Amino acid sequence: MNKSRRNKPVTSTKRKWVWLLLPLAALLIGGGFYGYQTYQTNQKMNAAKQVLTTFVNALKDNDFDALPALMTENSLTENHYDQDQLIEKYQAILTGIGAENYTSDDVTVTQNTQNADVYDFTYTASMSTSLGELTDLTYSGSIAVDGDQALIEWSPELIFPTMSGNDKVSITVDNANRGAILDRNKQPLAENGTLYQLGVTPGQLGTGDEKTANIKTIAAQFNMTEDTINAALSQSWVQDDYFVPLKIVDQTANLPTGTSIQETSGRTYPLGEAAAQLIGYIGTVTAEDIENNPELSSNNQIGRAGLEAAYDQELRGENGGQISITDENGTEKEVLLAKERQDGKDIQLTIDQEAQQIAFDALNGQAGATVVSEPKTGDLLVLASSPSYDPNLMTNGISQEAYDAYENDEKLPFISRFTTSYAPGSTFKTITAAIGLENGTIDPDTSVAISGLKWQKDSSWGDYYVTRVTDVASVNLEQALVYSDNIYMAQQTLAMGEDAFREGLSSLIFGEDLDLPFSMNAAQISNDDTFDSEILLADTGYGQGELLMNPIQQATTYSVFANQGTLVYPKLLLDADTRDKAVFKAETITQINQDLTAVVSDENGTAHTLASLGIPLAAKTGTAEIKETQDEQGQENSFLFAFDSEDQGYLLLSMLDDREEGQSATKLAPDLLTYLAGKY
């Protein structure tokens, strides 16, 4: 019995466990294999995505040298490219059209249904070009993956989607004409004209010592350095029979060996130095300009100073043109982008070109400025600053030596003195007088006894005195303006007090933006909201202290005397509306204008020399001193305020900054005043 038990077959229960374990083992083996496949697939997908991302980023960064390493060698060979040719192709096309700001969207990568080692991709791209935006460019292609290495199967369609074979991309640019800047009579202040381009033909210069001698002659005749000429000749594109531009010059019949002149078009400034700070100049667009304004391209020019900069967008217009795909024979296949040219707009100013030139010439290179307005309308007829620079050189090529001469000039030719703030000096006594008449603290018929050439209120002023030039024992308002008496004005300002004085000043333009296309500080009464002493109050009454106004602001303020008490705001664009505001009573202005006429007609008047012109004038001169202590001899700025006392057709404010010995703004004015009297 025992023996039979030992030989008993395996029971059905045991067999059941065996059959249950076999599928489980198979499942574990299969699961491991499937997990490995999934891992491999994910690795391949990640590699494919990574190479596509690297490719797109290289285009975004214009890193064309990185492209060959991302492509399969076979794909380049099949398209008849080597690595260098691929780099050159992208460089020529994308740089040529001014491609910037490359972006990609809707990037997808999927495994190819036919080949597990191939991944297909699509994405859309956009970029800015010199002609505008190229958007919604739809790309597709494939990526070969071997292990963890992924490479793109390159074809020309990856440059632009419809390219193939040896297709090219061409760009034609229809450059917009920059708008002109015109004066009130439509005479040009900035225009597009004919320029004369000096250049050399390398093959005509000879060789060796002969070439060296010819280059030296060219440099000497046209104020250039030999290094500059040699640098131009060493450019990569230069060949013996090419014309190599050097600089814009005046026409000349006496040309050195190897040189010639070609006509070209460019920006010209007919008044040159006479209107440089007003009109400004243009220059070639830089990479920084494009970064700040992607609409610009490297073949644009942009306003660099003055009105050329302030109105650049209106003047510049927009270039037109076309970006096309052509076959290798130049036949057009597709237009990628087409844009119509939009020329810039002309801008017409209130400026009188002839008056501007006369005003600048009158300054005769001295540091100063002249502003002339048509006071009834606010039209600015003249905005001249001296010394100056030549905007034609700045635009069309200036040597380093010439630029350094401007930069190192102590008289600062680049600054605009008509927007620079100064203490207005005695011309401002007219305003103090008007405020005193308005508030009743000044009686024009009352004479004030003043003794000597200096005065102080009391001993609390210490060693500070108000001084005057002429010792007149008894002074009324007319005499105070005729003799330009500081003491009278100081006393009257103290009599009216700070509150009344500031209230009168607040009705003018202090702290206001005059809405002109210039950068300038607002006119100020004092550094703080109140005067910190009676001395500062007194000094302000005769145009010194901490009072600061630029010549435009002075001319604007004094427009009340040509408009029966109404202040007329300045304007520079001819079609701008006139703005004004009532400030003083007409009878107040009538009184002061009679006195200002006497400043010219009275033989003791500080502007009496102008009487010889034989034209109706009212005027006030001024001298503002800039010094640290009262006893020192400081810088003196000379001013002249004058206007047509008969018809109020023009108003002038001229100044000399640190006037030269024996000079004054009044001495420089006759030619300009004579012209204005004849025309306005």
Report on this structure.
- By secondary structure, this protein is α+β, with helices and mostly antiparallel strands.
- The protein folds into 4 domains: 140 residues, NTF2-like, domain 1 (Nuclear Transport Factor 2, Chain: A), CATH 3.10.450.100; 97 residues, Penicillin-binding protein 2a (Domain 2), CATH 3.90.1310; 77 residues, 2-Layer Sandwich (Ribosomal Protein L30, Chain: A); 326 residues, Beta-lactamase (3-Layer(aba) Sandwich), CATH 3.40.710.10.
- The protein is 32% helix and 23% strand.
- It is built from 20 helices and 25 strands.
- The strands form 8 sheets. Strands 6, 7, 8, 9 and 14 form a 5-stranded mixed beta sheet that branches. It has a 5-stranded antiparallel beta sheet with strand order 16-15-25-24-23, with helices on both faces.
- Strand 15 and strand 16 form a beta hairpin.
- The chain starts with a helix and ends with a helix.
- Belongs to the transpeptidase family.
- It is found in: Cell membrane.
- Keywords: Membrane.
- It is a single-pass membrane protein.
Number of helices: 20
Average predicted confidence as pLDDT:
91
In CATH, what is the homologous superfamily of the largest domain?
A: DD-peptidase/beta-lactamase superfamily
Shape, per Cα inertia axes: elongated
Give a short account of the largest sheet. 5 strands, mixed
CATH architecture descriptor of the largest domain: 3-Layer(aba) Sandwich
The number of strands is 25
Please report the first level of CATH classification, the CATH class of the largest domain: Alpha Beta
Distance between the termini: 148 Å
Question: What is the rounded Rg?
Answer: 40 Å
